[in-house]
Design goal:
This protein has 122 residues and is mainly α. It is built from five helices and two strands; from the N terminus they run αααββαα. Strand 1 and strand 2 form a beta hairpin. Helix 2 packs across helix 3. The longest helix has 27 residues. The radius of gyration is 20 Å and the shape is extended.
Length: 122
């Protein structure tokens, strides 16, 4: 009976938060104990991805951050599509707040780009 509940938890949607929490906890511990110099040097490892003739060369921390943000927004888009077409956000009145947040996110991105366009592609 206990194993069944444990297995049901890991199959459900709530278990997706365990890995980021565990990774944040490990990073917090490594940064705040004697291993901080190893941890910081590990994050600065130079990585390179080749896509045809256009290589991407960044430190590991930037590559991981960019990849996780891309996956996050990809999954967010799928979730929004599901909510709009199959769930609670079918009507225009229910989706108004969502549209306001989407427009605000786009405007915040444009504002960030305007302020930092000289530093992004250096």
């Amino acid at each position: 009976m206990c194993f069944r509940n444990f297995w049901d938890f890991f199959i459900g949607e709530a278990s997706g938060g365990i890995f980021p929490i565990a990774a944040a906890l490990v990073a917090f511990i490594f940064e705040n104990v004697f291993l901080s110099s190893f941890y910081n040097s590990f994050l600065q490892i130079d990585t390179r991805l080749n896509f045809g003739r256009s290589p991407i060369q960044k430190p590991l921390i930037l590559l991981v951050n960019d990849s996780l943000i891309a996956v996050f927004f990809f999954l967010l888009g799928f979730r929004l599509k599901r909510e709009i077409f199959k769930a609670k956000l079918r009507s225009l009145a229910q989706a108004t707040l969502l549209k306001i947040f989407i427009i605000g996110g786009i405007l915040a991105s444009v504002f960030f780009y305007i302020l930092n366009h000289n530093y992004i592609f250096c």
